[in-house]
Amino acid sequence: QAAARWHPSEADGEQARAVKADGKAMDYYSNSSLEAFAALAKLSYCGVARGLNDAVQSTCNDRVGPCSRAGFGVVPSTVVPEGVSYQPELTLNTSFVNDTLFFYTALIRRTNADYARAPFFMPSESCVLIFRGPT
Hints:
By secondary structure, the protein is α+β, with helices and mostly antiparallel strands.
C-alpha cells in the first residue's frame, strides 16, 4: 500500500476530493481586505497614545478609506489599547521597555450583506485583535 500524501486520514479519498473542489486561491483573496487590515496593523505602531482611538476610527470607518472598501468599519468607542512591559527587571532604564508589547482590540461591523460572500467572508460583527511586538 502506498503512503498517504497528506495524512493517514486521506486513505478514504476525502482529502483528494476536497483539493479538487477547492477552486482557485484568487477566489478567496481580497486586496481591499488586505489593505484594510494592513492599515489597522500600521496604527499599532502608535502604541498607547492619546489619539489612538481617533486614529483608528478615522482610518477604519464604514464611510471612507480602506476598511469601507473592504466592507466593514470599526464601531465607534470600541477600541481598547493595552501596552505590556517586557522584562523590565533586566534593564536599569525601564523607559526602554514600557509598553514594549502592544495590542488593541476593536469591534468591527460589516457594512452590507454583499461582503458576507467570497472573497470577503466578513461576519456581521467580529472582534479584531491587532498587535505588534518589541520595537
